[in-house]
Amino acid sequence: MDFTFTEEQQAAVEAARAVFADVAPDGVPSPALTPGAVAEDFDRPLWAGLAGSDLLSLVLAEEHGGAGLDAIALCLVLREAGRVLARVPLLEHCAAAMAVQAHGSPELAAALLPAAGCGTLVLTAAAHGRSGHDPAELAVTARREGADWILDGTQTAVPWAQSADWIAVPAHTGEGDAVLALVPRTAEGLALAEQVSTSGERLAELALDGVRVDTAHLIEAPEAWERLRQLLATGTCALALGLGEGVLTMTSQYTGKREQFGFPVATFQAVAVQAADRYIDLRAMEVTLWQAAWRLDAATGGAGGPLPSSGDVAVAKIWASEGVRRVVQTAQHLHGGFGADTDYPLHRYHAWAKQLELQLGPAAAHEEALGDLLAAHPLG
User: Fold this and answer.
1) In whole angstroms, what is the distance from residue 264 CA to residue 236 CA?
2) What burial class does residue 173 get, using C-beta atoms within 10 Å of its C-beta: 0-12 exposed, 13-18 middle, 19+ buried?
3) How do residues 140-155 score in pLDDT, each as one tens digit?
4) Residue 81 burial by Cβ neighbours in a 10 Å radius (0-12, 13-18, 19+)
5) Which of 35, 180, 217, 285 sits most deeply, having the most CB atoms within 10 A of its CB?
6) Biggest alpha carbon distance in the chain?
7) What is the pTM of this model?
8) Cβ atoms within 10 Å, residue 201
């Protein structure tokens, strides 16, 4: 079997590295020194660079001005974004666009996707529900009223909501069905309350009070929200992998230069063993990420497996959630006091890693979900 990436996927990585080459992780005020958000908006110049390199349209079909690539290509680009803590809604934007393309009406796709591919229209997604613990689709109700749908409820911690033009909001109909509504940020009845992430970025609590959604802007396909949820989770694992690799590289460079007793500390066995353990974590994060991303694409193409794709996503989340935490904790330890210096970017990586860990959720919860899947789908 050939596990190498395609030429198109490798070209996407090269384009992403070129765009992210000049991104400074400490280009905004430190979250450790800022009482609120580190900035009012995301990195618009970087967003323009991504659009100019056709990376925002990477996963869109040619009819919408895109390259027609897959979830693996998106995760490869997100991995590069994670290395430099890129402050752009790349994951949410592309994942929402993929959901609209796969399950939305032709009218909705034509209205949103060409502008989304050019970066002139920004998409985000509400995926954390009311509290971050309960299923997101249960936080909002959707009921028919004539030719429209009416949404009521609350979604918390929506990334980049204040800067987005449209927000993908999961909801339930009261009959056990999950639907996905595309809501303009300026919709009547939609209110945004300021929230700030652990990494210092702006989030928003969405309060929906009788928000009216046109039928063409609501996706009733039952698999639409589930696929979007899995795309967001897998993309978050890709960001965690890129962040972890950036941190390990930073730690390797520091321990190779820092000397004690006349020798670089990297030559000390205790340091080398800890770094090697974290390298193993990253490789496990990587292999489970590509398995999950491949299963998402394979499921779209009709290929199956012994477990649903949610099983592969759960395994990737287990490794990413615990792995990214262990990587940054070891990096802080090996850097000593220097790692906590706010003039050095490691503390930013630590804050971002904690935010990603919170977004992914505890590994124990994913292990329980995986156990339920194994019980429901005996491998024998």
Assistant:
1) 35
2) middle
3) 999 999 989 999 999 9
4) buried
5) 180
6) 78
7) 0.96
8) 22
